[in-house]
Amino acid sequence: SAPCPQWPYCRQRCSYCNFNKYVVPVVDEAAVRACLVREARTLLRLSQVQRWVLGGILGGSGPFGACPQPPHPLPYSITSVFFGGGTPSLASPRTIAAVLEAAVGTAHLPAGAEVTLEANPSSAGSSRLAGFRAAGVNRLSIGVQSLDDAELRLLGREHTAAEAWGAVEAARGLFPGRTSIDLLFGLPGQSCGAWARGLEVALGLCDDHVSLYQLTLERGTALAGKVWGGALPTPPQDLLADMYQTARAMLVAAGFRHYEVSNFARKGALSTHNLSYWRAEQYIGVGPGAHGRFVPRGEGGCSREARVQALEPDAWMREVQSRGHGTRRRVVLSPLEQLEEVLALGLRTDEGITHERWGHFSPHLSLEAAFGAPGEAEALQQQGWLVLDGG
C-alpha cells in the first residue's frame, strides 16, 4: 500500500492552479500534524494491508471474490510514501517525521522504501532539505516549472530561475539520483523553439527523472481568465503536439526512458510511488482533499473503494479529531469500474497492462478473451494502436 499525505497550504496561489490548496496567514502546524498522524494510523489499520499483498494488489481470488485470509498474520506493508500538496516543503521536517513514524508504528515500512516529498524551490534551501532527509525523505520532486523568469511571472510562481537552479543543485547534493524536476509547456505565447531551448537548459541541470506537463487552462484560475478573455493567446493544439514530440525526442536522445505519458527516467530512477497508481495498486489518501483506493478489510470489506477526504482543512481536522479520519465520500468500485481504471492507467505506461496484473482484477476473463476477439479491439490492433502479445 502507498500512503499519500497531503499538506494543503501554500504561500501564494499560482495563476494556473485549481488544486485543493489554501493560503492562510498562520497555520497551526501542531494541530495539522496531530491530525495527519491520527488519520494515517486510522486508515492504515482500516486497510489492513498485509505483506502477502504484493505491492498493494490483492492475491488469492482477487478483489471481487471471497476475501481470503493470509495463512498467518504479518505486519502491514507499505511500498512507498508520497507527501503531496499544496506545498509540503512548507511543513517542518518534524511533521514529516511524525507522519512517517506513525506509518512505521502502524504498518511495515521496508528499509529503502521510496519516501518522496514535493518541494517548491522557494522553500527548498540546503538546511531545510537536510532536515527532510534526516526525517526519512529519500526522494524529492521539485516544482521548477520553468527556468525563464518571464514565464515564471506569467505562471505566478514565487521563485526565480536562479532560485530553482540553486534548489535543484542543493537537492542533487543531498538526494543524488533521486531528485525529480517538473516542467510545464504550452504556455500562452510560448513557441516550440523557446520550449526546446528551455528544455536544453533544464537538461544541463536535471538529475535522472523529469516530469513534463502540458499546461491545462482550468476554469476559475487567473491565467484561464486572461486567455479566454483575449488578453493572452490560446496555444494551438498542433503546436502543443509538436512541443511534446520535440521534448520526447530530446529526452530520449539524452538517455531517458519515456516510461509514462508525462514521465521520463534514466539509470532506473522511475518513481515507485507513481508506478503504483499506474499499475492500479492500492493507495491511501491522508489529509484534506486526498484521494485513496483500497479495500477496507479492517471493517470486513471485500471490495475496493474510492475514497475522498474532506476538502477544507478546518472541517477535515474537526472530523479527524471526532472520529479518527476525515473521509467524506466512499464509493465501492464495481468490477467493471476497476477494469476501466486498470486499462486507463496502464495504457499511460510503456509497459502497458501485463496479463498477470489483469488477472488479479479479472480472474475469469483474460486479456486475450477481452481484446483478442473480433470487433473494435481488432480494428485497433490492425491500425497499430493496440498491441496484444505474450507480455
TrEMBL record:
InterPro entries: Coproporphyrinogen-III_oxidase, Elp3/MiaA/NifB-like_rSAM, HemN_C, HemW-like, rSAM, rSAM_sf. GO terms for cellular component: mitochondrion. PROSITE patterns: RADICAL_SAM. GO terms for molecular function: 4 iron, 4 sulfur cluster binding; coproporphyrinogen oxidase activity; metal ion binding. Residues 1-257 form the Radical SAM core domain. SUPFAM superfamilies: Radical SAM enzymes (SSF102114). The keyword Metal-binding applies. Keywords: 4Fe-4S, Chaperone, Heme, Iron, Iron-sulfur, Metal-binding, Mitochondrion, S-adenosyl-L-methionine, Transit peptide. GO terms for biological process: porphyrin-containing compound biosynthetic process. It is found in: Mitochondrion. Belongs to the anaerobic coproporphyrinogen-III oxidase family. HemW subfamily. May be a heme chaperone, appears to bind heme. Homologous bacterial proteins do not have oxygen-independent coproporphyrinogen-III oxidase activity. Binds 1 [4Fe-4S] cluster. The cluster is coordinated with 3 cysteines and an exchangeable S-adenosyl-L-methionine. This is Radical S-adenosyl methionine domain-containing protein.
